[in-house]
Amino acid sequence: MASKLIDHNPILKKPVLTALHVCIEHDGASRAAVETALNEAWSAAFTQTPSSVVNALVRTGYLTEQITVDGAPYAGTLEDAYRDDAVALDANVDAVLTVTASGRALVEDYAPAVTLARLFSKRARYVPVFKSALEACCAAGGATRENIEKAIDASIAGHGIVGDEGQRIYAQYFIDALETAGGIEWDGVWQATDAGRAAID
């Protein structure tokens, strides 16, 4: 299942999936509780706030947000409830977040094992090169960019692989593709993820 939210904004992939994983763990909890958990799980590398990502997920139907007053559903927004004279000043007004079926499907569809399999299927002739890069990243202590580039260049030469219309393929393409698919990650060095390790077995 393609997601316009992610496919049109690749920078949102990790924040969106992080938010959905946390929301699944706290399904049916208050927004305040979910955002507290999100703050703990949030990466400093994310440029979006947890609140803005939750808002985007609600807008796109991956989450539902139900306002409650003293535990009962309220047919309006938080702002409506606070302005509503019928709602007692001491009432417990809350927002409850629930992950929708499409939200759960999104998490499954963008799981690294799935996205790596999709990458390998779409770029079948490059699979030996992808696996060489992954093997380099499985080394104890990870791999430097130079290590990966050497492994990629050797694999390209060894398998006689050329790009579309005979063009040269640069190592950066494979690094970017594997990172986007969730096969490798940067942590001072390049390391294979669990899904990346499984992909070369």
Helix/strand order? HHHHEEHEHHHHHEEH
Gross morphology is: elongated
Number of beta strands: 5
| Count, helices | 11
Distance between the termini: 26 Å
Structure in words:
This protein is mainly α and 201 residues long. Helix content is 53%, strand content 11%. It is built from 11 helices and 5 strands, in the order ααααββαβαααααββα. The chain has helices at residues 4-7, 13-25, 31-41, 50-59, 78-83, 101-109, 112-122, 127-137, 145-159, 171-181, 194-199; strands at 63-69, 72-74, 93-99, 184-186, 190-192. Strands 2-1-3 form a 3-stranded antiparallel beta sheet. It has a two-stranded antiparallel sheet with strand order 4-5. Strand 1 and strand 2 (72-74) form a beta hairpin. Helix 2 crosses helix 3, helix 2 (13-25) packs across helix 6 and helix 9 (145-159) packs across helix 10.
Write the layout of secondary structure elements.
Layout: H1 4-7, H2 13-25, H3 31-41, H4 50-59, E1 63-69, E2 72-74, H5 78-83, E3 93-99, H6 101-109, H7 112-122, H8 127-137, H9 145-159, H10 171-181, E4 184-186, E5 190-192, H11 194-199
Antiparallel strand pairs: 1-2, 1-3, 4-5
